[in-house]
Structures are given as C-alpha cells and as structure tokens.
Amino acid sequence: MAAPLELSYNWQVPLVASTAGALLCIVLLGLTGTRGWGTVAAIAALVWGVYVLTIVLRARAFLQVDGGTLRVRHFRGLQTIAGPKVLRVTEFFTRRGPCHKLTVQTETGTRRYVVPTALLRGGHSTLFGWLLSHAPQAELDKRSTKTLEQLRIRGLVE
C-alpha cells in the first residue's frame, strides 16, 4: 500500500505560538485585575479556540493513491474513489492555493469530493498523475486544464 502525502506546511508552530500568545494575554489580563477582565479573557479564549480548530481541521488533509483508487479526507472521514467512476474535475481557490473537487458516479447518482491538493506536498502532481492513469475519461474544467498544462511544462506529470 502506498504512503499518504505529507502536509505542505508546519502546523505545530502556529499552534504553539497561538497558545502561548493566548495564555500570555489571559495572564496579563488577570494580573491587571481591572473590572471586566474575565469577559475579555473569555473572548480571547474563544478566538484562540476557533483558530486552533481551523489549524486542526487543515492538518487532517489526506491523499493516498493506491493503484486505481484514491483515498481522500478533507475534514471528515476517509473516502475511497475509483478511477473509472470520476466524471468531472473542478478547481477552486483557497488561501493556500488551488484545490480540486471530483464529481464521482455513485449508485444513487453523483457525489462531489474535495481533494485538498494545496495542503499536501506534491498534491497537484499526484492527483493529476492518478487522473491521467486511472481516470482519463474525467472532464477537466478550464482551471484544471491550465493546472495540468503547468504541471506538464514543469515535468511533474507526463
């Protein structure tokens, strides 16, 4: 079985830095003893919690190619996608770069899966290499076609 791709960024440093910053703010607020510091500390803790949640959810990005199957996870559980069932590939932009959605034929109709290629090292070349090998029938949108051309120019896919 093939190994999953690594994350393209270090999520531990922002997690530690934000935790240290939040704790420092809360401690300093507590030491001042001004009226209402508890409310401000609670708001700071809430903001920190939302930030940590986004970091943890991004760190769950997963992509693994095993022959004709692709295993992906964006936020929730793992999904296995068979190459011949892929109908369409669409690209959308995130803060980290372009990611892709695969429209897949299922028993009950069609379903869309998010492939977090921008969050994974080698995610774009791995996805498009798999698509060319195991899902050549998949229709690429304009942006995906442009990404594929760029990967070919750089020699990352054939």
| Structural class determined from secondary elements | alpha+beta
How big a fraction of the residues is strand?
25-35%
State the low-pLDDT regions, or none: none
CATH architecture level-2 label of the largest domain: Roll
Count every beta strand, where a strand is a DSSP E run of 2 or more residues: 7
As for the number of domains, it is 2
What global shape is seen?
elongated
Question: What is the terminal-to-terminal distance?
Answer: 23 Å
- CA radius of gyration is 21 Å
Short summary:
With about 160 residues, the chain is α+β, with helices and mostly antiparallel strands.
Overview of this protein structure:
With 158 residues, the protein is α+β, with helices and mostly antiparallel strands. It folds into two domains: 12-59; 62-153, Pleckstrin-homology domain (PH domain)/Phosphotyrosine-binding domain (PTB) (PH-domain like, Roll), CATH 2.30.29.30. It has four helices and seven strands. The protein has a four-stranded mixed beta sheet with strand order 6-5-4-7. The protein has a three-stranded antiparallel beta sheet with strand order 1-2-3, covered by helices on one side.
Question: Key terms for this structure?
Answer:
PH-domain like; 4-stranded mixed sheet
